[in-house]
Every structure is written in C-alpha cells, then in structure tokens.
C-alpha cells in the first residue's frame, strides 16, 4: 500500500469473501496494517466499489447493439461508441449512490453511530 500511497493515506476495503479472510490473507493484513487504514464494511452493505456496477452498465449498453460484437476489435469499437456513457443517467445514479454510502460510512452513521 505504501508504494501506491506513500503519504499514508491508503484505505483498504474488502467484502469478507472467503478468499479475503483466509489465514494467508489475514496474516498479510495484520503484518501490513500500519501501511493503511482498514475501511469498515458493514455486513450486507452495498458494494462500495462502483466499478462492477459501471462494467454492468457498459455490458448492457453493448448487449443492446445489433449485431453484437464478435471480435475484440468489434468490442472495443462498441465500447468506444457507447455514446456518452459517462454522462449516462444509470452511471450518474451509480456514482451518486456510492458517494452517499461512502459519506455515511465516513460519518459513522452506517455503523449505528449518530
């Protein structure tokens, strides 16, 4: 983490999936805990990493194309042609939802703190 955030501002989040709580992973986290802040992830919380939601939105935009892309070049073209996807309402909603959740998390309200 210190390579990426040499100023000590790195934050680590994980969703407690089985691979993330293995003995090896837990040991590594304990050994490197001074390198970053572990971001609390409440049980059954929404995904705080919006990239999966964005990939899903892009997938749906590409799937709507007719004919569908059949080669890597076709896929790249389809992704580039997905006009204005950054301004897409769905993407804006994803970003807003994630931002609101992170604001709650930072304030401690999602942890039951007021």
UniProtKB/TrEMBL annotation:
Residues 87-114 are annotated as: Disordered. Residues 15-65 form the Tc1-like transposase DDE domain. It comes from the Eukaryota. Pfam families: DDE_3. One of its GO terms (molecular function) is nucleic acid binding. InterPro entries: RNaseH_sf (IPR036397), Tc1-like_DDE_dom (IPR038717). Gene3D superfamilies: Ribonuclease H-like superfamily/Ribonuclease H. Residues 87-108 have a biased composition (Basic and acidic residues). This is Tc1-like transposase DDE domain-containing protein.
């Amino acid at each position: 983490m210190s390579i990426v955030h040499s100023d000590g501002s790195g934050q680590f989040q994980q969703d407690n999936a089985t691979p993330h709580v293995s003995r090896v992973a837990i040991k590594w986290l304990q050994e490197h805990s001074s390198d970053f802040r572990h971001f609390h992830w409440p049980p059954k919380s929404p995904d705080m990493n919006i990239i999966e939601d964005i990939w899903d939105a892009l997938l749906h935009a590409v799937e709507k194309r007719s004919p569908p892309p059949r080669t890597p070049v076709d896929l790249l073209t389809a992704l580039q042609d997905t006009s204005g996807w950054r301004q897409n309402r769905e993407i804006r909603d994803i970003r807003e939802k994630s931002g609101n959740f992170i604001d709650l998390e930072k304030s401690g309200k999602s942890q039951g703190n007021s």
